[in-house]
Amino acid sequence: MLFDKQLASALATDQISADDILNAFEVPKDNKLGDVCLPCFKFSKVLRKAPSQIANELATALDGVDFVEKYQVVGGYLNVYLNREAIAKTLISALGNENIGGSDEGNGKTICLDYSSVNIAKPFHIGHLSTTVIGGALYRIFKHLGYNVVGINHLGDWGTQFGKLIVATRKWSSLEEIAKNDEYFLNSLYVRYHQESENNPALDDEARAWFKRIEDGDSEANAYFDTFKDVTMRAVSKIYDRLKITFDSYNGESFYNDKMQPCLDEMESKGLLEISEGAKVVNLDEYGMPPCLLVKADGASLYATRDIAAAYYRKKTYDFSKCLYVVAYQQNLHFKQVFKVLELMDFAGKDDMEHIAFGMVSMEDGSMSTRQGRVVWLKEVLDKAVEKARAIIEEKNPNLEDKEKTAESVGVGAVVFSALWNNRIKDIVFSYDKVLNFDGETAPYVQYTYARSKSALRKGGDYDLNNVDFSAILDDEGYEVVKSVLTFGDSVKQAAKLREPCVVTRHIVDLAEKFNRFYIGHRIVVDDEAVKNARLMLTDVVGRTIKEGLALLGIDAPEVM
Ligand code: ARG
């Protein structure tokens, strides 16, 4: 909210603190009702007066405040209209800000962010899109706010599937062939294994034996393991490059092989472990959850065991203030159990663990099922979106230089955006036409608006900030744009607080819409220098804000489209 802190301290009294006022402020639903609204109902208990009387009394403090244009008391509400010119003048400092929407609220506090965390030996499928791009966006948003963020890819690189793949490789392929081929080839062996093992259960015994050899550090078995991992990581890295995703650590499940025992010992010493049918579990009856399984009867550790070891490792290594897990809601129970066990262990970070859940992505033509092999590979989705973007560009702007690069930015951006548009928890149905609609709430729409701002700036040339007629951008349409630019930072903070990148996504779409309305209603490059300067300045700061917003989301902003 604009000038909210200044307003709050102007309005504060002996009985109502500036903080109380700040917390009570609202943005009026209808902008005809002003810029800031203070509902006074909650103060009436303390002050023993009618809300409207309180509003009237408080309001007198605003007489003579230079950034307040006027105010109105309506019922129990105090509606404040800010001085548009005072607001617009602050745009000039926004222009000089290299760190648009950023702040230092994080103050160097460390956040561990576990995201993407793909599974080795499987191609990247669309089920991992959301965790990857939501995680990537949160990573950048927290950094933008001055947090020290540790991006962790908790690779799924452990489990009996590796034994299965070794059996399949030895029967139907070879290590050399695997190393030469891509992740899809590897996957086809896995699929074949599942088909054949249905009629030949002995394969599973072989697979178990091979997996045991990996666990025991056998070099032949581990050569297979390493190759599977290399092939997958090579492919996955290409996707991360396209999505602009980076990590500070790739410590996955296998990394914790030698780090679980001390945790189990700790549970043992705290009397938490129970034996159930030969397995070691922590009973969670009391908390209305099934037991958390930690060691199987055959001695094998589990997913949860590794997560517990990982929590201890992260606390010790990074001393995080928060440890966040961007993982689908299907794992709600897993994280509840793990967090509960950590709490029972009195783990030092127990109050700072957070599961950032999100919904499912399915394709318009029906859902997908991993088991039946009807999986949608992310690479194919990206390629197809880029191909469609290329066709649209070909039609709209056949003379564009660098069509290939722009098509990549638009196609990939559209896919990324689609996973960042809604609140995380919503399931989404992916449609190429919808995400690539240049007139919709989409990446291409925002990118197009950015390119439009750049084109206006190229046409307008340099502008002089010493000769600006602010009134040229302060009619209702212009003022909405100004306010949207200046409140972008609030949305970045809000996105971080709620762990919801969509707050940023929605802000930039809203800004793009407002700017387009202004652009259509006003010529930017006009003869009057002071008017032109004002409009170019606004166009410039809008472009920069959109570009920053897109960058936070991991989306390119092409200069020309
Ligand atoms: N690899 C897991 C999956 O694909 C996600 C891992 C999430 N992170 C974690 N620390 N459990 O389902």
What does this protein structure show overall?
- The protein has 561 residues and is α/β, with parallel strands linked by helices.
- The chain is 52% helix and 10% strand.
- Among the domains are: 79 residues, Gyrase A, domain 2; 83 residues, no CATH class.
- A 4-stranded parallel beta sheet has the order 5-4-9-10, with helices on both faces.
- β6 and β7 form a beta hairpin.
- α13 packs across α14 and α16 crosses α17.
- The two termini are 33 Å apart.
- The site of arginine has 9 residues, from α14.
Descriptors for this entry?
binds arginine, alpha/beta, single chain, Gyrase A, domain 2, three-stranded antiparallel β-sheet, 561 residues
Give the SSE map.
Layout: H1 4-11, H2 18-24, E1 36-39, H3 44-47, H4 51-59, E2 68-74, E3 77-82, H5 84-89, H6 91-96, E4 110-114, H7 129-144, E5 148-152, H8 161-172, H9 175-180, H10 183-199, H11 202-215, H12 219-243, H13 261-269, E6 273-276, E7 279-282, E8 292-295, H14 303-318, E9 322-326, H15 332-344, E10 353-356, E11 361-363, H16 378-396, H17 403-418, E12 428-430, H18 432-435, H19 443-460, H20 476-486, H21 488-498, H22 502-521, H23 529-553
Parallel strand pairs: 4-5, 4-9, 9-10, 11-12
Antiparallel strand pairs: 1-3, 2-3, 6-7, 7-8
Helix pairs in contact: 1-2, 7-21, 8-10, 8-11, 11-12, 13-14, 14-15, 16-17, 19-22, 19-23, 20-22, 21-22, 22-23
Bound molecules: arginine.
Short description:
With 561 residues, the chain is of the alpha/beta class.
Assign an overall shape: flat
Strands of the widest sheet, in order across it, are: 5-4-9-10
Count the helices. How many? 23
Strand content: 5-15%
Structural class: alpha/beta
Helix content: 40-55%
Low-confidence stretches: none
The Cα radius of gyration reads 28 Å
Taking all residues together, what is the mean pLDDT?
Answer: 95
Termini Cα gap: 33 Å
Give a quick account of the main beta sheet: strands, pairing sense, barrel closure. 4 strands, parallel
DSSP summary, beta strand count: 12
